[in-house]
Amino acid sequence: MKQALVLGASGGMGYALVQELVNKGIGVIAFARSEQKLKKLYGQQQGIKIHPGDIFQFEDLMAAAKQADTIFQSANIPYEQWEEKLIPFFENIINVSKTTGAKLVLVENIYAYGRSSGGKVKEETAKKPHTKKGKIRLQIEKRIKKANVQALFAHLPDFYGPNAENTLLHFTLKDAKQHRRAMFVGSKKVAREFIYTPDGAKALVTLALQEQAFGQNWNIPGYDVITGEEIIAIIRDVNGYKKSVFTVTKGMIRLLGLFNPTMREVVEMFYLNEDPVVLDGTKYEREIGPLPRTPYQEGIKQTMEFMEAHRRK
User: Fold this and answer.
1) What torsion do the CA atoms of 253, 258, 264, 266 make, to the nearest 10 degrees?
2) Confidence at 311, pLDDT banded by 50, 70, 90
3) What kind and span of H or E run contains 32?
4) Which class in CATH covers the domain with range 3-163+194-224+277-294?
């Protein structure tokens, strides 16, 4: 890999991917809609070319992908647009890959697996999505696999980390950082899985450098499962947070959905907070090597330090 295009470079995983690729000495084209945000994140950082554009415009994607041999897809759109726009969004990416011959690295969530079967989910676990969004993700995966492109699919749990702002855990960390009363979505007693975005990026780039990784699905789990109570205890230890943390329930999300289209779509995914899907990373460790796993204490500390540094800018 000599030149990589990162779609969604202004997001959490996109930012981590850009940094990991640069650290590996790989040239990066950072693609996102907002030129202002790209400049703010990357400035004059060596090895990065910023390329603002619209992912729904084939010409914009083609202009960005001309020199790329690998495309990392970490971009996303609001839930309420998935049914109408997510498949055309991916069709553009597929067509760019076909035209340029670039390999695809797909940053995937866990929605297509459906409900937890009680144990850790392996790559060969049958995908039985029961939600609208899970069915759309599975449909996209099948389309890409039928297309004449080289692609690998990496499933990751919920993100947290530097610049990962559109995540559930970010809102808890942000309020706690400012010593305001914070909210935590779902029961604080249920153990769930989160992945620190730099860890996810390291695993993704390592996969992308392995020819045999393409044409396969891979699970990239987080450090371990952790309860909301344990997360809050870490936050208190990291920055001396003393306020109580409010639990956001499914009923509250449903009520907000009466007025907010995004919240209406969040309701069907709330099962992940009640009966979490936990990924099995055995295949990665057997065929690729040790998974990057930053302890939550260090990951949360680094994330809050990033928030503080960028709040001052």
Assistant:
1) -10
2) confident
3) strand 27-32
4) alpha beta
